[in-house]
Amino acid sequence: MTTLIKLEIVRALRNKKFMFFSVIYPPVLYLIIAGGADSKPIPGMKLDMGLYFMVSMAAFGAMTAVLLGNSERIAKEREKGWVRQLRLTALPGRGYVAAKMAAAATVSLPSILLVLIVAAVVKGVRLEPWQWIAIAVGTWLGSFVFAALGVALGYLATGDAVRPISMLCYFGLAFLGGLWMPLTILPQWVQNIAEWLPTHAYAALGTAVEAGGAPHLKDVAILAGYLLVFTAGAAGLYRKDTHKA
């Protein structure tokens, strides 16, 4: 499994298109959205635009790496027979799923750190050392939820269908979860939906730390619940795919 994780990381780092959209694109988007924003608090929140979008774009970048990259690679590997070849080795099914999740989450770390660095250097965001560490660690750990979703989608759809399905999940969860704009300026029905979405809970980990507190137990519980559901779904779809082979 360790060998497979290393292989997946090397493959991702060699993919220039993947590296741009998962590592470079999020901090650029952060500067576009929050670059000209002032330091006034967002209506209904204690945070300004620079702080809010620092966390949301770090989460968005991590989602790009673990969700889109994972789902497409797995679907294509299934079609090419690579997964079938791996079944002939000593690698167990759970090892394959775990390796995909771990490799994807590892690659997401540079994106998270780069957004935080850009926020500090360009936008002048200032936080306590423990807050920077807590935001980085919390955002990275939370990305495992979407890595599991990426694995599940990779087994759910074919190589041709996986991209539109994953993009729909990707942009839908990002918008409804408040990554593109603060939920306080969106309609109430959107806020009601977002309260139970993994993306909202994901970003809330960092915004709670920015406000000087700890992540809320409700958000942690929501993410843990989605992680169990997505992981179980990925494992079940893997077993189903095995029976077809």
From TrEMBL:
<dbReference type="Pfam" id="PF12698">
    <property type="entry name" value="ABC2_membrane_3"/>
</dbReference>
<feature type="domain" description="ABC-2 type transporter transmembrane">
    <location>
        <begin position="52"/>
        <end position="232"/>
    </location>
</feature>
<dbReference type="InterPro" id="IPR051328">
    <property type="entry name" value="T7SS_ABC-Transporter"/>
</dbReference>
<keyword id="KW-1133">Transmembrane helix</keyword>
<keyword id="KW-0472">Membrane</keyword>
<keyword id="KW-0046">Antibiotic resistance</keyword>
<feature type="transmembrane region" description="Helical">
    <location>
        <begin position="220"/>
        <end position="238"/>
    </location>
</feature>
<feature type="transmembrane region" description="Helical">
    <location>
        <begin position="18"/>
        <end position="37"/>
    </location>
</feature>
<feature type="transmembrane region" description="Helical">
    <location>
        <begin position="97"/>
        <end position="120"/>
    </location>
</feature>
<feature type="transmembrane region" description="Helical">
    <location>
        <begin position="132"/>
        <end position="156"/>
    </location>
</feature>
<feature type="transmembrane region" description="Helical">
    <location>
        <begin position="168"/>
        <end position="190"/>
    </location>
</feature>
<dbReference type="InterPro" id="IPR013525">
    <property type="entry name" value="ABC2_TM"/>
</dbReference>
<feature type="transmembrane region" description="Helical">
    <location>
        <begin position="49"/>
        <end position="68"/>
    </location>
</feature>
<protein>
    <submittedName>
        <fullName>Putative ABC transporter permease protein</fullName>
    </submittedName>
</protein>
<keyword id="KW-0812">Transmembrane</keyword>
<dbReference type="GO" id="GO:0046677">
    <property type="term" value="P:response to antibiotic"/>
</dbReference>
<dbReference type="GO" id="GO:0140359">
    <property type="term" value="F:ABC-type transporter activity"/>
</dbReference>
<dbReference type="InterPro" id="IPR000412">
    <property type="entry name" value="ABC_2_transport"/>
</dbReference>
<dbReference type="GO" id="GO:0043190">
    <property type="term" value="C:ATP-binding cassette (ABC) transporter complex"/>
</dbReference>
